[in-house]
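Weekly puzzle thread! Below is a chain. First person to post its structure in token form gets bragging rights.
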Amino acid sequence: MSKGYKSTIIRKYGTAVQVQRYIDGSPETLMETKALLGRAARSNSNLKMSESQKEGIFLPDFDIDSGDFVLNKNHREDYVVVTTHQEYDGNRSLSVVANLMKCNHKITLRGNSKIADDRGNIKTSFGEKYTDIPCYLEDVGSELRQFDPGLNPETEHRIYTTALNIDLTDQITIGYRSKTLSLKVVSLDYTSFPNLVVIEVAKDIRK
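Winning reply:
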């Protein structure tokens, strides 16, 4: 069998998708390609998370990385890329395999930003930093705490999204079960996955 068979399968049977990368919190130009999309092969003891985990198989020379978003317009679904790895046959790359999480919400972040006035004086202003950023949000309950005991005691939800510049003092708003939730940041993890941030949040009672 030809070593290019995987690329042939992807081009012939793959789903047309767009891949979007954020640079400094702003979306860059969409890249169009095809990918084989399916449920992630690896198991997870958290059933809800397992149902949201997907796998995307991309052409071997396609540029995709953690923190990118995969937009599947045919099924009206967006995914955030958590990890990627090359699939090899000997020394030849057959494909890029991406572990994905199906985005189930969009977040807006408000916080302090430094702005220069006409005279070059730096002032701090509180307002929107990012708007309508796709994310995967999971509820944190006792089952998840057993699975991941390192969670902050305050954490009520955990959010996966591209690596935005977030401060612990920022406020996050999100549409959740027919209402808008205001959330405070209790922990930020930029190190587990390159170009992706895992945000632990709790209910925010600040006005």
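Puzzle host: Confirmed. Bonus trivia for everyone else. The chain has a mean pLDDT of 88.
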